[in-house]
Q: What sequence folds into this?
């Protein structure tokens, strides 16, 4: 199974900050990497697919990059509605696997 | 709009089974696989398996082999996930999600709202 490791596990940031979350795969997954946002009590919501493609309707302050084993999710200017938990997920092979999540909290 | 609506919360005793439904609307049900995930309280996301609504074919994570069944009823655009021999470790929110596959990308979108399954004696 492909192990996905996110860092950090949590972070505190202020509105307007630039935030970067990293995801590392235990083996190369090309660009088969997705990012999801989850708010408390809600289902995950797709933000980025194929490592860098922005899902329709997602604000342009979200961006993704990377290939192979190392990936990044960047929020260019953190907004109040962005405080949530973010998960990376690989879709290169089965079983599909997720990172452990990064909780973004208000500073 | 594309939507997946799941059945309501369940409370089960250890050793029992649970069956959760996932009703699709807004797209052709047989064109996309349905995946199932779960999330234990305060924990991350765990993929359980998929079903092809077109063929009925399934594949499961090894952890759930022999204990999970996935079926579908194309006449009502609904997928089902049945988990047997429940223990307290199965207490979780269970999600269905549509599997989207395009050249260079495979992802889950959208997700159902989730179904809380509580296993307690």
A:
């Amino acid at each position: 199974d492909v192990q996905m490791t996110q860092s950090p596990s949590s972070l505190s940031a202020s509105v307007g900050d630039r935030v970067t979350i990293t995801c590392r795969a235990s083996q190369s997954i090309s660009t088969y990497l997705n990012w999801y946002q989850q708010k408390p009590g809600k289902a995950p919501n797709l933000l980025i697919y194929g490592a860098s493609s922005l899902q329709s309707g997602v604000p342009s302050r979200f961006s993704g990059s990377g290939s192979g084993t190392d990936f990044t999710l960047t929020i260019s200017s953190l907004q109040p509605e962005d405080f949530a938990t973010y998960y990376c997920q690989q879709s290169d092979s089965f079983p599909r696997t997720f990172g452990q999540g990064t909780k973004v909290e208000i500073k | 709009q594309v939507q997946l609506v799941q059945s309501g919360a369940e409370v089960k005793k250890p050793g029992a089974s649970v069956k959760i439904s996932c009703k699709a609307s807004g797209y052709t049900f047989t064109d996309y696989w349905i995946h199932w995930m779960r999330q234990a309280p305060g924990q991350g996301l765990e993929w359980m398996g998929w079903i092809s609504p077109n063929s009925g074919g399934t594949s499961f994570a090894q952890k759930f082999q022999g204990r999970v069944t996935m079926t579908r009823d194309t006449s009502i655009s609904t997928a089902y996930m049945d988990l047997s021999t429940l223990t307290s470790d199965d207490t979780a929110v269970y999600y269905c999600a549509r599997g989207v596959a395009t050249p260079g990308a495979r992802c889950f979108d959208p997700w159902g709202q989730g179904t809380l399954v509580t296993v307690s004696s």
Notes: Chain A touches chain B through 24 residues (CB under 8 Å).
